[in-house]
Amino acid sequence: MTDQEIIKTFQDVGALLDGHFVLRSKLHSDKFFQAALLFKYPDIAEKLCRTLAERMKGLGAETVISPAVGGILVGQELARALKIQAIFADKENDELVLKRGFTIRKGEKIIVAEDVVTKGGRVQQTIDLVRSFGGDPVAVGIITDRSGGTVGFGIPLFSLIKLNLPTYQPEECPLCKQGIPVVRPGSKS
What does the pLDDT look like over 146-174, one tens digit per residue? Predict the structure, then answer.
């Protein structure tokens, strides 16, 4: 799929939103990618994740891990396309932990999957969790990189698409200065 086809798909399913948003990173933006709306359509989500998985073949990964909640569906679909297993990390006191009988073996090659990355805090927490068990994070796979290409994790990063969406520090946000009401989208709403 081309970038234009991917963006059109995001728009067609209502996943690329316009407005005034506070992101999980605490930055403000006039655009928000709500991946959950994309995953309302399993056939479309499967196709997009299969496209991402094609870019990630040959890594020798055995498992995909995702941080709850946003990355779980991405991880499931990536694992399906790559024919490997999928697990996820739960949030507990704003930390990520393994529960539900999930384990990571020493040396296990793992892909970290997430829906959207702006600053990459949750992805880095997931990488750190994998390493704390002796696992080997071999790559990060995300649907949307909205970092402007600035985020890095010291391992290969694969994204379905890079969106150059503006972000602002709250004190410098032109939308705030215009008095436009702010929305906190994502899993908190």
Answer: 887 888 999 999 999 988 788 899 999 99
For residue 86, the surrounding DSSP H or E stretch is strand 85-92
The tens digit of pLDDT for each residue in 104-162 reads 999 999 999 999 888 889 999 999 999 999 999 999 999 989 887 888 999 999 999 98
Per-residue tokens: 69: 């909640």
Tell me how far apart the alpha carbons of residues 84 and 82 are, in angstroms, rounded to a whole number: 6
| CA–CA distance, 141 with 120 (Å, rounded to integer) | 12
- For 36-63, the DSSP string reads HHHTTSHHHHHHHHHHHHHHTTTS---E
Residue with tokens 């399913």: 13
Q: Which pair of tokens denotes residue 113?
A: 């999957």
Question: How many angstroms separate the CA atoms of 132 and 151, rounded?
Answer: 22
Q: Running DSSP on this structure, what letter comes out for residue 172?
A: G
